[in-house]
Amino acid sequence: MSIAELTTDDFRILLDRALQLQQADSDSRRPLRLDSLAGRAVITMFFEASTRTASSFQLAARRLGADVLHVAAEHSSVGKGESLQDTIQTLDAYDPAAIVVRHPRAGAVRDAARWSSAPVVNAGDGAHEHPTQALLDLTALRARLGEELAGLEVWIVGDVRHSRVARSGIQALQRAGCRVTVCGPPTLVPRGIEQMGCRVETSLARLGEADVVYALRMQHERMSGAYVPSLRDYAREFQITSTRLRPDQLVMHPGPVNRGVELAHDVVDAPQSLILEQVRAGLYARMAVLEHVTVGIDSEVLA
Amino acid sequence: MTAQLDHHAERSADVLLRNARLLDPASGVDARADLLVRGGTIAAIGDRLDVPAGTQVVDATGLHALPAFVDPHVHLRTPGREGDETIATGTASAAAGGYCAVLAQPNTEPVTDSTEVLRALQSRARAEAVVPTGFLAAVTLGQRGDELAEFGMLAAAGAAGFTDDGLPIRDANVLRRALQLQQLHGLPIALHEEDPALSAGGVMHEGAVSAAVGVAGIPSISESTMVARDALIAGHEGGHIHIQHVSAAESVAAIEHARQGGVRITAEVSPHHLTLTDEAARGLDPNYKMNPPVRSDTDRAALIEGLRRGVIDFIATDHAPHSPAKKQLPFEDAPFGIIGLECAFSVLYTDLVLPGVLDLELVVRGLSAGADVFGIARPRLVVDEPANIALVDLDGAWTVGEHGYHSRSSNCPWHGRELRGRVVVTIAAGSIVHREPLHAAAGGTA
User: Backbone phi, then psi, for B44, in 5-degree steps?
Assistant: First the structure.
């Protein structure tokens, strides 16, 4: 449901399983396929658009042997005004192994869980949390740098205010022992966010201190007020370019990237970019989460 | 000018409260005594009073008899939203909470901006209100913020005051004209202070909690800038403005500053702003969503201090019912507002008096001082006064909402909490309007 509510044990179990699955998949010649959820259904109910997360969850569910049903709000009775409660109860009536929900409102996925007997997984609720993103981000980092991330300096740059990726990431990275700095224009870094434990910077002057630079998308669909005068004004101060980076600094982004806005074109495709590795890690992190909430994780099970 | 109050009067009470601890700080009353009500009037206060024939006797040993409470800020949702609350259910809620009078806000459907609507409401109150009920009228037609309502006619028809509550008066000139015309009727103009440009899209206090949970915040400056602006206008025009539901430390400071400068400015605070902070909303439960929002520890401390020092004049609940279908939406979508009449005294007693933050005397005063601001006769524990009494069991515990609510709605942030300070009997305008078993645990009889 959230990084905030994840116990220390579960946090570690999920991360280790995701990494284990990823390594098993790269070791074997055929794609990893488990049958933990054979004969069961996993329903993904998305009230908000998504490419990565939706496809990632669906593929993860299939790799666990489940039948997958995807419901997109714009093609459902939500357009007829059906309530969240009725929607979830309707889907729950199919006795799924799990329901994965993405919703544009903070807290809505936990509200949905109240009406479901099947476990509900949060695929993003408003600007509040995107816990599986944080888990996959850590998995990608561990796959690249090794299992221990303690002491790593991570900068999260961009529209923190509207970012559930940032909120889950700040918490998850700190729990993994990283030091987190958030950076962006004062209009996009909410006052008081330092009480989550991170440092706050309003310029890239000290970006050199970072081991990992995590860029956030400038979100058009969430910004109804004028938070920055223009994207080019933003880019001048905060765009991650190759001149602002050393080759040994890693670059991450949750996608989709606004090329030329938060990341310069060449940075997106550079060897120091983990972006595609994040996508790959997403499959394994979500397999781990689906296992965890349904049948439980058994590290012995690898086929 | 006294506000017109209407209700469906029941039989006048003939009751003796035996051996109660009488506490009416505003009247200098603090004594253990018998209190006799005859024909709805306080007939005698003394030791071992005789019991006239036909008089009920209530053994009030261990109980406190307080002047019943007055709430000038409640939403009865009538006309237009009777599914959320009616005059009957809202006033029953008030009676259960120890209240003997309430004033209803005009942000109804249609808005109470004409004598037609006002008279219809007064008529309904005569038919169904459990306690005396008055009605504020809008400052502007439809609360749209531009054309002034017919103050003179509304005042003559018994409006208790004027407010666009629920919305601010954005146009300074509209407020200015209203204050000038106030000289003709003398009724309070009550203000919901919010700058929509600053509060835009906000759903809770703008602070560390909103930053952490990812929802838009309503900054304190949304309220304090408008308080400051309106205080200056009131000072310039010599008018009386009443600041509703103060929530921010900066607002308290602005009110104090204005008053020191001679401005006729009064203010109220709610039980929730005195006892809750934005931490309560961290879990995104819409039962902690209200406007203005509950803010930080610093704000809460300033509100408590403001009440203690008299910068804030009285306590009002801003009882705002919403049916479950409407309130149980994701936090950002849910309507603002919580109910509070039934547990106001208990919340204040349990969370402020028992821990020693505020004296019981101050809370008791604060719960009826609104009467003075709105021209309602103040409830007093004095012989020959109409009986307006709240008999409370300070040690009595109860669980909020365990037997449901008298209100039609249940959007109560204290739902499920065990509180002390149980209201046992409420006498309003001389009639018993609420009665609980004296010993709730045993379910015994009074």
Answer: -160, 150
